[in-house]
Sequence to fold (301 residues):
Amino acid sequence: MNADPTPLWRRLALKLYYATTYPGRQWYLGREAASGRAPLAILVFHRVADDGANDWTTPTGEFVDAIHWLKDHVELVSLEEVQRRIRERHNDRLAVSITFDDGYADNCRVALPLLVEERVPCTYFVSTGPVLEGTFFPHDLEMGNRLPPNSVEKLAELSRQGIEIGAHTRTHADLGRITDRDTLLDELITAREDLEAAVGQPIRYFAFPFGRQENLSDAAFSLGRAAGYAAMCSAYGGYNLPGDDAFHLQRRGVDGPAIRIKNRVMADPRELRVRRFHPVPSPPADAIVPVAASVPSGSCL
Fold:
């Protein structure tokens, strides 16, 4: 199977787009950095492997090339640092934070060990159910793929090595479609408590499965805020700018060729036009739930 299923024409189109828009990107980044308004990009990977099993698998070579390029061209920071710069309303250099969603065991072959070795901050969002039960993700089974999740022991080891473990619901549920409060509590709060107990570390961050605007909800944001999450992450695109909402962090999926990552990071004009989802700023009274664990203030690495 082709390790990278991206068609050649698509690769060429991405490279052409990057090249033709590069002068404008550089001008914009220089202007915004000088005024302390440089963007903060958060990237989402899912699985790094060479079998091309699905559209959210990044070939190993492409991932390695992307990380080396990022180290040479941007400042790599943790989600906590992204939040700090948003709140302080100042960022004078293009910065990027790396995240992973789901929790595939294959990520421990090359991708995560590389990040640990290179001391690149990373937040690893995992769905509690597959990890605790050793089951496969439903969206993979629908495609006929049986791709194993990480074990609890491996997650605990990654945490000790500096990878921040985050919550990603229990069942990889679309929270935008859940109206039952008990179900929402289980996916957002109880699943987090179970993951904390298994890994032995507080879980500070949450990422919405699928992450598009239709997969988010005011109710989910309210519950997450009341439960003490440090931030909740979408994945529909857009940049985080100084002065934005530091609780809702915007991300963009970048699975695939490294040129897609370069386009996403370097002030892509399309991303600058993404309209932000604004959740309700305060929770309703009946959404208050107890905080399961204290939240530390230390950085990821």
